[in-house]
Amino acid sequence: MMGLSERSASSLGTIVGHAEHVCSVAEGATPPPGIEAVSSSWQRSANKYGLDPIDTKAPRILTPAELKHCCEPLDKLIFSAQEEIDQLYGVVREAGYTVLLCDNSGVAVAHRGEQMRAREFQYWGTWLGGVWSEEVEGTNGIGTCIIEERPVTVHRSQHFRSRHINLSCSGAPIFGVDGGLIAVLDVSAVDPELSERAHALTGALTLRSACAIEERFFREHFRREWIVAVAPPGGGAPGMLLAIDGNQRIMGANRLARMSLMLDDRGLRAGTSLWSIFERNVDIFRHRDRTDFPVRLLIAGSNDTRPALVTPPDRPVTASDNPTSHDLHTRPRLGSIDVSTLPPAPQAWGGLSPGAMRRVREYVEVHLGETIDLSMLAGVAGLSVHHFARQFRQSAGVTPHVYLTQRRVERAQEMLVRTDLPLAEIAFAVGFFDQGHLARHFRHLLGKTPREFRWSQR
Question: Which of 49, 64, 207, 211 makes an SS bond possible with 172, Cβ 3.0 to 4.6 Å?
Answer without folding.
Answer: 207
